[in-house]
Amino acid sequence: MTQQESKILSKCPAEIALKIINGRWKLLILKELFSGTKRFNELQRALSGVTQKVLTQQLRELESDGIINRTVYPEIPPKVEYSLTALGDSLKPLTEVMHDWGINQTKQF
């Protein structure tokens, strides 16, 4: 989210939250990271159907928004791990409520 987008949305906190987690794979990435630190390949295997390009983009956006940490180890081959920041971890209750709401809505269809 750019600074300009943040200023525009600053009048609606819910819209800011939705903007940060909006993305085809972001909630699923968060779900995987709630269980602990993961490497890129672990995330890609867990999220069947996501391309390397899209996963990279979604991870960069989450990192830019302060939701995840990206740790690069000086090894060959390079080792990169992704983990939640405190801000990212604070999204867990929100995602649980969204999950429960989705289950309740599924029952109505």
Automatic annotation (TrEMBL):
Record-level Gene Ontology MF annotations: DNA binding
Protein name in UniProt: Transcriptional regulator
UniProt domain HTH hxlR-type: residue ranges: 12-109
Xref: SUPFAM superfamilies: Winged helix' DNA-binding domain
Keyword annotations from UniProtKB, A to Z: DNA-binding, Transcription, Transcription regulation
Superkingdom, taxonomy of origin: Bacteria
InterPro entries reported in the protein's UniProt record: ArsR-like_HTH, HTH_HxlR, WH-like_DNA-bd_sf, WH_DNA-bd_sf
Entry keyword Transcription: yes
Database matches in Pfam families: HxlR (PF01638)
UniProt organism field: Aphanothece hegewaldii CCALA 016
